[in-house]
Design brief:
The chain is 41% helix and 14% strand. The protein has 374 residues and is of the alpha/beta class. The longest helix is centred in the C-terminal third of the chain and has 28 residues, at 243-270. The chain starts with a helix and ends with a helix.
Length: 374
Amino acid sequence: MKSSQLLLHRSLCTLVCKWTYSPSEGWDDTFWSAIGLEDLMENCYCKIGEQTCIPGTPVGRGLTAEAAADLGLRPGTAVAASLIDAHAGGLEVIGADVRGHQLPCEEQPVTSRLAVICGTSSCHMAVSTQPLFVPGVWGPYLSAMLPGLWLNGVGQSATGRLVDHVVNGHAASRQLKEQAEKSGKHVYSCLNLHLEHMSGDAAQLEQLTAGLHIWPDFHGNRSPLADQTSRGSVVGLTLSQTLDDLALLYLATIQAIALGTRHILDAMKEAGYDITTLFLCGGLSKNALFVQTHANTTGQYKTHTHTHSAAVIGACASSDCGSIQEAMMKMSRIGHVVRPNPALESFYRRKYAVFRRLYDHQKECVALMEDDGV
């Protein structure tokens, strides 16, 4: 295959999710004409991709001699069609081998799983056999992550970034960092330990925020409300500027993010999904309190899974595995399982009710300020 021809191939994942491409119908010429981008249709769409590749498809004849020399690899080493970063995270965990872990999804299809990629922001990835339209959720996209399955991509605009913002902006943040440096622990490990000391009982830790509630849309709501005008709010502040106060705000922020995931799950279930298990990866998934709070808030089992999506699609491109599903099963393993604490079901049921009202009250306040007749 000539290099000029290689330029015409594009990853189906990117084209479907970001470029309005339909796997069954191809490009929509009327769309490009309507927005004044007719030039993208020239020469069989050479600028945006004449042909598509499902993730994991071998591209060309592998590495060229020049690329192989730069990378220290052999010429012809298999190169796979890639994915968008969040979708790669979903591919990394959603098909893991769960046998022997007594998870509710063990005898269920992959459609019973939700991948949560937790970082600066968070993305939630789920697949279905039929297209499911979920208000406020991207998709459905055919074969964008797993061949033959429809993908819905959900997101929270700020998660890890929100936790950092709340912690670093507090008056006690310097004291926290000094404590972390002395102990040799990460600041969030210190906060988790501080909360344990405050509660005196690990089982009661999460209930420390019974009077403190946060709506986490400091950077708007991506899903399931799709409301970029939504803003963050905090109910229950005091004049305290102590480390105790910082720890409580930190806990309430983590809970708000987890409640946002519950909000997303509710919307997906209403649209037809039957999700029983969450699979987490990314930086935030290393925080034990973050993971446990997600389990307790949603009532879902959580798994922390280890693999690399590049290895999965590479195994497909090199023909070591016959499909992405086979590669995921062989290469993805459960790191550990976190189970929800049923004793906290009532607490989080009430806290979720408060959480949902915070948005409603925000919209009421906006409406009042816009009404000149009041």
